[in-house]
Amino acid sequence: MTCEQNRLTQKKGKLMIKKRLVIPWGWLVSGLLYQIPASGADLRQCQTLITAQNVAQCALASNPSLQAEAAALQAKEGGRINAQRYFPSNPTLNISAARRGAKGMEPEAFNWYLTLGEEIEVGGQRGARKKAAEATWEAQKKRIQGVAREIAKEAWVAFYETLAFEETHALARELETISNRAKEAVHAMAERGRLSPLETHLTDIAATRMFQFVRASERKYYTSRAVLGTLVGVDAQNAAWKIEGTLDPSSFPIPLAPPKDQMAQEDLTSPEIESLQAEEQSLQTTAVLLRRTRIPNPTFFFFAQNDGYNEKVLGGGVSIPIPLPEPIGQTYNGNIQEMEASAQRLAFSRQQAQRTLRQQRRVIWHKVESTRLELQAFSTSKIQQVKEDLQKLAQEIETGHIGIRDALFMQESMIQFFVDHIEAKRLACIAAVEWAHASGAPLEASL
């Protein structure tokens, strides 16, 4: 085998080792992130069509913050691997040589000395190190789950807001057509002398306000669309992607379970609270590791030497570090105090998060119930009747059954009715998303 072939063989072996390490890790991260779509077809669909079935997955698959947290988890995995080592340091080999010159009748001599030493942990440092690395890894894993839930929540809210503003914009354009017909009818009556110029001006003002309503709804729609596109990772140059969905809380694919008031505060949990608890555990295990590190590690050594005039000597021994109090030596007191205080801070933060979660669950569930009752007020028959009345408004003005001022007032009330209906649906959908997030439902899971 030539040198070049040998080099290629070694390089191929290194690549195979790297693949064996990285590929299972990729599977692990994918499992932690709840089956984020990784196939090319799924990612291509995120660039063309966003629906209730893929909005959360598309947001998770393309979010740099989540990818950064996954990279941090991979770094923690390196710490777990490093904690598996049996010895705190590599063995040390000391080799020395000397030449003894001739003196009087004594001949010259060549002396050599060899010492092999190894530090041994006797205070349980390896076990503490493994627990600390495992706790740090677990804390990062919980942090990823919390970040994924926040990203999924933002994507769901943006999805429903985009649907709401899209529906509002479509309604505004439809109402603009109806308003223009009423305006034309009023102007025709004014030309025949049946109306005063003041009433014509009032109609023009109403038409201008309707035009402003159309433009405002258009701005809100395109703004919300841009926000959703950013969250799901749509290419900024891609303007052809579509959104499909129903602005209805019943379209939210996660069932909404009522709260359990009998649950004690200390039993309340969520991925965010579990993340705080895991970080607290990580700091506590790190403090234990620092305490174990203060225990001196003996170093056992073996030596062989050729001393004097070819005198062979074999032997061994042990050296033990002498711990000195701070500030003369290192006892890690400051580091331990820092870890314990930080763990206590996280414990208080976790208690506060549990209090906040209990309050949020009550408030958000009330919002879910309130918006549900509000939506029931907009019955299908009532909505249809208002649509028919609005369509007849221009005809009623022409026949003189309704005065201009009354017609404008009725038109504004009907328009506000439709706007309130869309707003009620938007609030109900967002309340469903917020409740799923507060109750710990898998917002980021495959649906």
From TrEMBL:
Pfam families to which the protein is assigned, alphabetical: OEP
Gene Ontology CC, one term: cell outer membrane
SUPFAM superfamilies the UniProt entry points to: Outer membrane efflux proteins (OEP)
Any GO molecular function: efflux transmembrane transporter activity
Intracellular or extracellular location(s): Cell outer membrane
Keyword list, A-Z: Cell outer membrane, Membrane, Transmembrane, Transmembrane beta strand, Transmembrane helix, Transport
Stored Gene3D superfamilies: Outer membrane efflux proteins (OEP)
Residues that span the membrane, as ranges: 21-38
Family: Belongs to the outer membrane factor (OMF) (TC 1.B.17) family.
The name this protein goes by in its record: Transporter
